[in-house]
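User: I'm new to structure prediction. If I give you an amino acid sequence, what do you actually give back? Let's try with this one:
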Amino acid sequence: MDEFLQFARQLERLTGIDLTLYKRPQMERRLTALREKRGYQTFDAYMAALTRDSDLLRELLDRMTINVSEFLRNPERWQDLMRVLPVPAGRPLRAWSAACASGEEPYTLALLLEERGDVRYEIWATDIDRTILSHAQRGRYSEHQVRGLTQEWLERYFVRDGDAFVVTPRLRRHIRFEAHNLLADPYPPSMDLIICRNVLIYFTEEAKRRVIRGFSESLSPGGVLFVGSTEQFMGASQYGLGNAGPFLYRKAR
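Assistant: Good question. You get back a string of structure tokens that encode the predicted 3D arrangement of the chain. For your 253 residues, that looks like this:
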């Protein structure tokens, strides 16, 4: 067994995260750079340190995940989503923001639904990285992260705090943040909308198919899956999905 694969198996025993389901070149390159930065010459030595040092382990988990986002990223895609969004009768819309990183996407969704005004909603926002989830729960963002929002929206949904913008309770009350591993944990049932953008590209084809199948099973009939601009996939019908727009898929009724 090669050294990185052995490291991956040991990490799965330690954390429950299976590195072999991620595309190896990108992940090995990222973790090798981190290992060398911390002064460990081998993955064996690095693993020994990870088992002793919880801060070192948290750093590795943070490096594994892709935590780059901003509010209203690719605004035309969000406009497309709002046009096809299912509006359930007699109950709140149930949305899942999967791999939500620092929270910009679930807060963006909440903002757009507030602006729409005719939808009651609940948002479950998840990520594998507990550290980045704590940032999301705080809802504090830099000017760069909110640059896609209008001044009117900033005044309506944020409070200025020095050089940062803090999300108001008006948006925060609709969102529940929790840790979740897309490759290991159960998926929630009866979702009307699932947002998972710019994450699937880091998975192997086998893992990607597993996640898409899980999303389809999680969606209610007529529910919508919203993926990233590099993540369109062929053969949506094999998962019970049909095209609903660019990077949007609707579950068959």
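You can read the tokens as a compact description of the fold. Here is one thing that stands out. The beta strands are 93-97, 121-127, 140-142, 158-161, 164-167, 175-179, 191-196, 219-227, 241-245, 248-251.
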